[in-house]
Amino acid sequence: MTTDPLTSDAEFVSARRSEIVGIAAELFAAKGYANTTVREIADAAGILSGSLYHHFDSKESMVEALLRDFLERIDARYRSVIANADDPVDALRELVHAAFGALATDRAAVAVMLNEYNLLVQYPRFAFLQDSVEESERLWVEVLETGMREGALRDDVPAAAVYRFLRDAIWVSVRWYRPDGPQRPDDVAEEYLTVLLSGLATPTTTGRTR
Amino acid sequence: MTTDPLTSDAEFVSARRSEIVGIAAELFAAKGYANTTVREIADAAGILSGSLYHHFDSKESMVEALLRDFLERIDARYRSVIANADDPVDALRELVHAAFGALATDRAAVAVMLNEYNLLVQYPRFAFLQDSVEESERLWVEVLETGMREGALRDDVPAAAVYRFLRDAIWVSVRWYRPDGPQRPDDVAEEYLTVLLSGLATPTTTGRTR
DNA sequence: GTCTATATTGAGATAGAC
DNA sequence: GTCTATCTCAATATAGAC
Fold first, then answer.
1. Which nucleotides of C are covered by protein (CB under 7 A)?
2. pTM
3. Does the C-beta of B47 come within 7 A of strand C?
4. What is the 3-state secondary structure (H, E, C) of chain B?
5. pLDDT tens readout for residues B148-162
6. Footprint of strand D on the protein (CB under 7 A)
7. Separation between the CA of B35 and the C1’ of D5 (whole angstroms)
């Protein structure tokens, strides 16, 4: 028994392996998965490319480890937020905060998910990506539909359409959001929620707003 | 003089070349630029890979031709829309319609721009991408700021922040919008404008909306 | 304008010593 | 767990015939 006694054998992943996943994630996020070579990953980790294959059997395994871990955690976070919310509008607010929060805690994973989803999801090995995306959609849409049914949210735009606009605007912001800048993720979330919930038009705006 | 008499020598591009750019664009959009081989492009065009180099000196030249053409046209469209608008809210509405319209007319170019911008913009050859993106931002932000100054749009969220949310939600929709589906681009634009201008909350919504 | 044939490079991955 | 050395393959691009 050489593993940490607090960790079961089955779940044990070496610290070195996790470290390398993190290093690879940064490169995948910055340069794209296809444009990152295993030699670059090895360089960044301070070892030679052949040595990477002691930890992973392929480059695909690295990105798979990264995304499985991230998607598992964000799903758990969404469920926790929904379970603890007072009402649908509160749940929506907290979901938006949770999603923007991931820009700070899991920036690289979010970027990889955004940029490589379409490529990876084509392979059977990455079918879990689609499962996870569909499960998230189910959770968010359920919140939106409950809010619409209760009259707290407008119901003249389909919940699925609202969800798509929301999701896209939030995740793509990983391309411009700077974690070291003046804005905290919660600040960006509040700015977004202001426009989303109250709208951009003022009461005095003339002309159609619908 | 073998060129079309209606086209100046300087602007002449062979029909075959344009055709190949279109074929390459579909592949770049579907599989990603890095994952598309010149052999696949040649196959799709019905020729052998070596023959492609009669029309282009490199794979980069193909994507450059695609994006230069698209960005030039979308910029012209934005300027025309702004010049003909009655007021800033009208201009904003028409800009949103123009952008969603490009999903139908230039789907592949939009997808390539969205997916490959970060990669390509690193190379001096593609500096025009950043120029074009910055010019678009200038045009849109100017419209938003005018609307805020005139009191037609809320001014408690910075125009640049609103623009980023707008831009992201619109362009990323190329990932789920189906031109052959029931929704026309103008329908999607109206759905988006409804939420954007009037907000998701109903007047009866309790709790903070700001 | 396209084909045949090939040069050249760089990628992911492997085997076995240390 | 890392290094040395190398295999194998696929990619972009080129040269010249037709």
1. 1-6, 10-16
2. 0.93
3. yes
4. CCCCCCCCCCCCCCHHHHHHHHHHHHHHHHHCCCCCCHHHHHHHHCCCHHHHCCCCCCHHHHHHHHHHHHHHHHHHHHHHHHHHCCCHHHHHHHHHHHHHHHHHHCHHHHHHHHHHHHHHCCCHHHHHHHHHHHHHHHHHHHHHHHHHHCCCECCCCCHHHHHHHHHHHHHHHHHCCCCCCCCCHHHHHHHHHHHHHHCCECCCCCCCCC
5. 999 999 999 999 999
6. A 14, 16, 42, 46-51, 54-55; B 36-39, 49-50, 53, 57-60
7. 29
